[in-house]
Amino acid sequence: MGDILEHRPEISLHALLDWSSYKTMRVLAKSGAHMIVVFIDSGSTHNFISNKMATMLQLTVIPTKSFNVKVANGEPLQCHGRFENVPNHLQEIPFVPTLYA
Fold it and tell me: Which CDD domains match (predicted)?
């Protein structure tokens, strides 16, 4: 997993708590038949998804070695898996990110 996580992953407190700030933007996206809200945050280093959303989208988790994500308030958040090539359309532009749970 060293090649995936070259630097310690970080997620901003804004993204974690769904706050808006000058560094964040909410946009609508489509994943399969579902319209979802994507929270774009320049303070986060990786792409994250809630377990609740991953379950709703019926994504298949790829177990990974657990790792801590640094949250802006200093609290560690533990990730246990990832979702590869999750198909989405953001303003009609297709993209397939890897998302961490």
Answer: retropepsin_like (cd00303)
